[in-house]
Amino acid sequence: MATIKEIAKKAGVSYSSVSRALNNQTGVRPEIRKKVLEIAQELNYHPHSSAKALVQNRIGVLGVVIPRTSEFAFQNPYYSHMLLGLSSVANDMGYHLMLVINQQQSYASLCHSHLVDGIIVLANRIDDPYIPELVRDNVPAVVVPGYPDGWEFDIPSVNSENYQDVYRAITYLINLGHRDIAFILGGMNSNYSLVRLEAYKAAFRDKGLEYKDKYIKESDFSKTDAFRLMGELLNLPDPPSAVISINDATTPGVLHQINSRGLRIPKDISVVAIGCSDLVDLTDPPLTTIKVPVTQVGRAAARVLIELIAKGECRERHVVIPSALVVRESTGVWPSR
Amino acid sequence: MATIKEIAKKAGVSYSSVSRALNNQTGVRPEIRKKVLEIAQELNYHPHSSAKALVQNRIGVLGVVIPRTSEFAFQNPYYSHMLLGLSSVANDMGYHLMLVINQQQSYASLCHSHLVDGIIVLANRIDDPYIPELVRDNVPAVVVPGYPDGWEFDIPSVNSENYQDVYRAITYLINLGHRDIAFILGGMNSNYSLVRLEAYKAAFRDKGLEYKDKYIKESDFSKTDAFRLMGELLNLPDPPSAVISINDATTPGVLHQINSRGLRIPKDISVVAIGCSDLVDLTDPPLTTIKVPVTQVGRAAARVLIELIAKGECRERHVVIPSALVVRESTGVWPSR
DNA sequence: TGACAAACTGCAAACGTTTGCGGTATCCAC
DNA sequence: GTGGATACCGCAAACGTTTGCAGTTTGTCA
Q1: CATH number of the A4-47 domain
Q2: Neighboring chain B residues of A279 at a CB cutoff of 8 Å
Q3: What are A180-212's pLDDT values in tens digits?
Q4: Which CATH class is domain B162-292?
């Protein structure tokens, strides 16, 4: 591999001039710059990123941490969309992405060893033991979706309008006449579950109604578990008239359970899906959906992290991306006749 | 951040000894080693990976390239499974993963700039302009799934038993009595499409039968396109009695089209799915599937690449992972009564 | 022509490691 | 007590860059 010195020798200048020419800095005669660039091209020169990193104390890589999670969870299109968003901003800003799945060591050490300049934790669990260390060591880091309000420490986060969307969706269902609304949640160590359940309860409360605990089910975010739980719900003597499903993994399980019993949507039961997948667009009937703008969340997360790395702080520590409830045909008035 | 020199000063030894102690090399007294390790712990020392990389000429990172592709394609669980496989082996072998999506520059430059030690290209297109450069520059690289036999250049690859599986599936359908078997393919710049179509044709040929071009459809690997093409097929005066769908993205489109017409599987039409998703396990009826062992392909790819980096060559340049046709309930004899 | 500023250029240090080599201490056997 | 082997230790170079500083050239204007 060609180095800067070889170029210098070949061009007959010092290698500081070569460096300046290559990084188009000021202070090098145009003809020399041109010559240097030509020779670099000819030798197929590529700057040694480690050497650069060593002196500049910046490697140009963002660490994307996907905490220890089960295989089926990682299959969620959530991650794909997120990675697309992250990667598009990173590309534009001159950063690369290091993907860290099921890391068994502290996230902070990635930064301490200068492997990455900063860290994004995706789908963080609120009991993740490695996140407090990030704030203690003051590592540039962003978590998605973050922590409940008033949490014991503060770390930059990006989220979508989780609370508002679920609140709107439940209010909408209540207005349609539904009272027995089931919620297929994920694990309660996910802020997604916590915030959305909070909104669910608030929507009932604000209408002067009471939700029923038996309709609230904690899944492990998997399709099979959602299938099972939806089965339990439908076996109740008074099954729910509507159900809201927390993500793209659980929704197919819910739908499959409903379909396999020959129930009709929305005549027999209304369904609201939460997710980022366009899978739901082709279901029959088209699903009323809380469309989570995951790619945009990813873009924002990358932007915040890059700002954090550059400036040591960021203007907005807790970004919320607007999202929307899209009403389609899987929800109807109740009772339905 | 603590450096090796600070540890040396604090321990009262030279920093070469510290280095040796930390990398548990020979040539340092046990009590000194112990002391050094304690101080390192206490100072929260982490070796500077760039400094290390500079002198060792090895950064410990594998580049995972996902060529320019559309958003919906990246959503395919194929990539998730692959990344899980890659990451598990990489973790075990002390490597990290750099994820490069939609890279607009040459893949080889990643290696030339010492950002990564080697490169894995996922779902390579046979007309990808950046891959020949990898072999020209002798960059450690593996492509998945690779190129057709007798291609103009040779590059290590990992694939599953694409050909055999499709051959078996088509033979199986023919034995059931099917003659009009549709194939929803992807783009013909993908070796997946090429090889599988080859197998499709061979299965007919070897039975002394002729396939019909009108039943072969090239999709763009998307669900919506598959939905459209399946529509065209079912609109034919002589629609197919069976269909095989090339991946996890196209299958839902195919199924949705069939269901929306009120056709019954397998009475009216038999369906064979190709893919890695367990999505199909919950469909009604359960799908006869060519289960592609994508995670294992990923694991093998990482292993081959690491061997390539270490030894400069690998024993097996073209690994094929065995897979299987899993017969479930979406395929039946024809005619069906 | 001279003075002064501006633009250019090169030297050398620095970034944090690893490692070959030569030197020193330790130990054991005779 | 001497010899030699062995284990340990530190010096200094090396990896490929960037960059502050000082020195040199060029240009401009009076």
Answers
A1: 1.10.260.40
A2: 223, 252
A3: 999 999 999 999 999 999 999 999 999 999 999
A4: alpha beta
